[in-house]
């Protein structure tokens, strides 16, 4: 009987404050959708780091005859065969080096034409202007400085470049975007909490007569508060459910179908469905606990029981 009364009061409260209940549901849904999206973005950045950092190379670019005329690092002239052999031998002796591959001037020219064939500069370049290079795969990409300190300034070496630096800029941008999403999520969360508190306040005021009678007949504080807390929890749960739907639908239409990014951007290893599904219970739990706690503390102020 008591459970039936509490459930009936929940329905009455939700219908009585329908507009505010709808606002609570929408704000909770948006804030938790952003929360889930931020968690997935963090997973995506970690996945991409693991995928790309495992593939980055350190490149040692060798001097050519054109560099000898314009680059201070190549003031002693183009790299010689003996210098190339010495660099290669030294690389093979280094324990941090996993693999070394050589790119000739013709290969470098071919790759440049494939990537930048439409640029105005490409039509004026010739193979002899390209640089020979050694592409080094490290066992630990973080040990780039070991290669740089060993070969920068050596005769025949124009420069040592680490592709990881380019990726670091990309991941910094992604992390900034993720922090921005978390900031918006925090703002929406504050709005949702304020709406919940206000909804509970209005609901408690509109039912002050009923709660007064219940207090006079000896009803416990929890029994009086339970309908209000459950109203907030139900509204939050509906919002959490909508947030879960938004994440699932968003992942389905952006990566698998619709935009079909999984096929269009095959170089990116996108997070799988397992990452999405593991976030849903957390979102649902948050959607119930957050409004319930907000309602509980609001009732201590606006409903003296």
TrEMBL record:
Residues 184-304 form the ABC3 transporter permease C-terminal domain. Its main location: membrane. The chain crosses the membrane at residues 21-41, 180-200, 221-249, 280-299. InterPro entries: ABC3_permease_C, FtsX, FtsX_actino, FtsX_ECD. One of its GO terms (biological process) is cell division. It is a multi-pass membrane protein. Residues 56-160 form the FtsX extracellular domain. One of its GO terms (cellular component) is plasma membrane. Keywords: Cell cycle, Cell division, Cell membrane, Membrane, Transmembrane, Transmembrane helix. Part of the ABC transporter FtsEX involved in cellular division. Forms a membrane-associated complex with FtsE. NCBIfam families: FtsX_actino (NF038346). This is Cell division protein FtsX. It comes from Streptomyces monashensis. The lineage of its organism: Bacteria, Bacillati, Actinomycetota, Actinomycetes, Kitasatosporales.
């Amino acid at each position: 009987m008591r459970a039936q009364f509490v459930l009936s009061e929940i329905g009455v409260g939700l219908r009585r404050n329908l507009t505010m209940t709808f606002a609570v549901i929408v704000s909770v849904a948006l804030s938790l959708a952003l929360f889930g999206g931020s968690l997935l973005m963090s997973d995506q950045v970690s996945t991409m780091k693991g995928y790309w950092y495992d593939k980055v190379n350190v490149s040692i670019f060798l001097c050519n005859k054109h560099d000898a005329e314009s680059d201070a690092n190549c003031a002693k002239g183009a790299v010689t065969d003996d210098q190339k052999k010495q660099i290669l031998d030294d690389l093979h002796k280094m324990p941090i080096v996993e693999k070394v591959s050589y790119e000739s001037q013709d290969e470098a020219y071919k790759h440049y034409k494939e990537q930048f064939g439409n640029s105005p500069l490409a039509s004026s370049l010739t193979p002899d202007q390209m640089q020979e290079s050694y592409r080094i795969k490290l066992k630990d990409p973080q040990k780039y400085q070991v290669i740089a300190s060993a070969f920068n300034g050596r005769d025949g070496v124009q420069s040592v470049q680490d592709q990881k630096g380019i990726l670091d800029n990309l991941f910094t941008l992604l992390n900034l975007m993720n922090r921005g999403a978390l900031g918006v999520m925090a703002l929406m969360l504050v709005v949702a909490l304020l709406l919940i508190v206000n909804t509970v306040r209005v609901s408690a005021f509109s039912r002050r007569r009923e709660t007064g009678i219940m207090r006079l007949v000896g009803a416990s504080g929890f029994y009086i508060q339970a309908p209000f807390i459950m109203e907030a929890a139900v509204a939050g749960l509906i919002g959490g459910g909508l947030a879960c739907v938004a994440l699932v639908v968003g992942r389905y239409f952006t990566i698998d179908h619709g935009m079909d990014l999984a096929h269009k951007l095959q170089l990116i290893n996108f997070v799988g469905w397992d990452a999405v599904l593991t976030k849903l219970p957390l979102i649902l739990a948050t959607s119930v606990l957050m409004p319930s706690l907000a309602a509980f503390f609001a009732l201590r102020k606006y409903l003296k029981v």
